[in-house]
Amino acid sequence: MTSTAQIVRYGELKPCRTAFIDAHTPGSDQKENFTIIGGGVSESPDQYVHIADPIGFNIGAAGQPPKCRNSLHSHRTAEVFFVAKGRWRFFWGRWGDAGEVVLQEGDIFNIPTGIFRGFENIGTDYGMIMAVLGGDDAGGGVIWAPQVITDAAEHGLVLSEKGKLYDTKKGQKLPEGVRPMALLTQQELAAFPEPTTLDVVPHYVARYWDMMALADKQPARVIGENAMLRDKPGFEIDFLTRGSIPDAPYKVEVNEVVMPVRGHWHADVDGDAYTLAPGDTCLIKPGAHLRLAPSMTGESSLYRIRATKDPAGPTWKP
What we know:
Order of helices and strands: EEEEEEEEEEEEHEEHHEHEEEEEEEEE
CATH architecture of the largest domain: Sandwich
Radius of gyration: 19 Å
Strand order of the largest sheet: 3-2-4-11-6-9-15
Shape: globular
CATH superfamily of the largest domain: Jelly Rolls
Strand content: 35-45%
């Protein structure tokens, strides 16, 4: 019988260093990308998928050393990040100068769909951000700012019109009849919004300590119906602490993922006991009975993500 719980341990994550078109571009060439649940949006056949099950959304992660950045891109569905480790700067706009915000460990950012965005590790050690992407196919891939594609070609990577990477440094080339990914036209680029920091941060960013305060007695609704952040992007996210975890087991009604932020947690799934640590990802299938509890005293918090029937597509409204 298939287990109703599947766990991907932080220490067992398998990185891909050639996942995207900027993998050779100086400043972005030390990135590590992780596809934890779902197919993700990697452009490389080298990407390892830990749990391939379609659950209505995708879970991934990006790990980067200090001063390493992820190039400007956009998605057709939601992209939500929370910082697992380190200090990160997120920036957005056609050239990355329309707005920015700095996030610390535990902070969460529901990046508006339909804008170019990038991020960099501005901490002093290797950092990790965990990602939730809307939809089973995550919108069909990544839309790159034109300069990213041009820069990548100068360093040996070419993206086909079908979203597959070819490395000319390895002697690879586009197959006959396959064209390179077309650059966005000026008319197409004009359709991408340029919201300011004041447009975005108050409505799309939640700080860890604010959520800790709100989740003192009941779960803090972060994304979803009547939540802290705008949009209902095909999944909902709650933030739970020691004081807001249900005492009794509850039946899982839809695909559910729990991801500890601080502290160690006990998870009892249909009588099977697991211990979860920060950075671990636990998928619980519908029909299971789940009970969560911190395993020791001290600060404890986690994110819980559930699939919803809301459209996973574009949600940004000026």
